[in-house]
Write a structure and sequence with these properties.
Blueprint: H1 3-18, E1 27-33, E2 38-41, E3 57-59, E4 65-67, H2 76-85, E5 91-95, H3 98-106, H4 115-118, H5 133-137, H6 140-152, E6 162-165, E7 169-174, H7 177-200, H8 209-220
Antiparallel strand pairs: 1-2, 1-5, 2-3, 3-4, 5-7, 6-7
Helix pairs in contact: 1-7, 2-6, 3-7
Amino acid sequence: MLEVLKKAVCKANLDLVAHGLVLFTWGNVSAIHRETGYVVIKPSGVSYDKIKPEDMVVVDLDGHVIEGDLRPSSDTPTHLELYKACPAIGGVVHTHSTYATSFAQAGVPITAYGTTHADYFHGDIPCTRRLTRQEVEGEYEKNTGLVMTETLGKRDPMEIPAMLVASHGPFAWGKDADEAVYHAVVLEEIARMALLTESIRPEARSADAYLLDKHYQRKHGKNAYYGQK
């Protein structure tokens, strides 16, 4: 079942290693097949150098395992909340990449300091509030997803395709698993740039809104003209 999607998700997980975003088993990628509502995700705690497409686990949107001999990622409920809340999302990535995680641990958003940021994110990259004790001691992973959708509010998730979970780490998403990985890579580099910007000039402020909007719209807007037709 969903053999093509399993191959895509397996490749996307391996791409996290290739791009230096994960160590050991510190991350996961999933993708959803919207026609069936089934999600394919990396198995829990399995080393990246051992995973194969047939190891991927298929679950439904309630988290029930539909296919697979291994347990799905412990972060599966978080992924599922994003899929349920945001129909445009087709793939989700979670990592503990160094720079983005550092901002998450500090509990602060990544400010849009310049045009590199604006080429991919329409505004600051938000950070969630901290989860309460009750949320952590209850359905922790599900509540992590819920606090992310709470933070998104009415914003278009495809305009801000990443978020920091306070005291935890980054999540990124896209129309499919490959795009989600792409956004996770960009997020890490933007986080590094932001940290360097703040170290050079602690009082640095966001770039002007009209400049940020110009860069986002020329690449993603209705009349975008970046790249080839």
